[in-house]
């Protein structure tokens, strides 16, 4: 692949943006051209040959900006290699086992012919926006559960597919 990969995301407090940055950096490190942009800021997919979309999970739903991105660009997305990721479990579960996509993401994967999905742990720390976030933090259930080694490994598999090499070739 010689074109540019768009890595886009929907986030409220920045945790998913940091995961998207890691994905883009890994793709670049594997010799691909990658651009990172917030999902709400993307108006045209013409410059991109492939797309990775991430969304933070909130009460079992993907962030609204990520959902809107998929709806707004659905015609263009079905014509490109597409991967999705979710972030959000505020525990170690995402590092311990594969967590399937939530219902709406699963449906989008099917409709848009996405090549893959991963769920990564989330991060919720003091200063996070939102009433629910504050309740979670006040109950002692916050923290940073992102596994950057797992994120990099997943992004390297995406890069391998885009370069035409399988994960076993790495």
| Helix fraction bin | 25-40%
**What's the oligomerization state?**
single chain
The largest β sheet comes out as: 6 strands, mixed
Number of helices, counting only DSSP H or I runs of 4 residues or more: 7
Characterize the structure shown.
The chain is an alpha/beta fold and about 170 residues long. About 40% of the residues lie in helices and about 25% in strands. It contains 7 helices and 8 strands, in the order E-H-E-E-E-H-H-E-H-H-E-E-H-E-H. It has helices at about 15-30, 65-70, 75, 95, 105-110, 130-140, 150-165; strands at about 5-10, 35-40, 50-60, 60, 80-85, 115-120, 125, 145. Strands 1, 2, 3, 4, 5 and 6 form a 6-stranded mixed sheet that branches. Strands 7-8 form a two-stranded antiparallel ribbon. Helix 1 links the parallel strand 1 (about 5-10) and strand 2. Helix 1 (about 15-30) crosses helix 7. The longest helix is centred in the last third of the chain and has 16 residues, at about 150-165. The chain is globular and about 45 Å long. The model has no long low-confidence stretch (mean pLDDT about 90).
Keywords:
globular; 8 strands; alpha/beta; two-stranded antiparallel sheet; six-stranded mixed sheet
Quick overview of this protein structure:
This protein is an alpha/beta fold and 170 residues long. The chain has seven helices and eight strands.
List the topology elements.
Blueprint (H helix, E strand, L loop, with lengths): L3 E7 L4 H15 L3 E6 L9 E11 L2 E2 L1 H9 L1 H4 L4 E6 L5 H4 L6 H10 L3 E5 L2 E2 L6 H8 L4 E2 L3 H16 L7
Helix pairs in contact: 1-7
């Amino acid at each position: 692949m010689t074109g540019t990969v768009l890595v886009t995301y929907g986030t409220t407090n920045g945790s998913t943006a940091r995961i998207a940055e890691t994905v883009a950096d890994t793709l670049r490190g594997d010799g691909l051209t990658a651009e990172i942009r917030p999902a709400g800021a993307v108006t045209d997919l013409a410059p991109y040959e492939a797309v990775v979309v991430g969304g933070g999970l909130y009460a079992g739903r993907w962030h609204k900006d990520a959902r809107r991105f998929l709806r707004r660009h659905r015609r263009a997305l079905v014509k490109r290699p597409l991967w999705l990721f979710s972030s959000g479990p505020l525990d170690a579960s995402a590092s311990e086992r594969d967590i399937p996509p939530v219902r709406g993401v699963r449906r989008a994967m099917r409709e848009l012919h996405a090549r893959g999905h991963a769920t990564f742990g989330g991060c919720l720390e003091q200063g996070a926006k939102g009433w629910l976030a504050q309740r979670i933090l006040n109950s002692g259930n916050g923290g940073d559960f992102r596994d950057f080694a797992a994120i990099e490994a997943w992004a390297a598999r995406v890069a391998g597919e885009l370069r035409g090499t399988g994960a076993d070739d790495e």
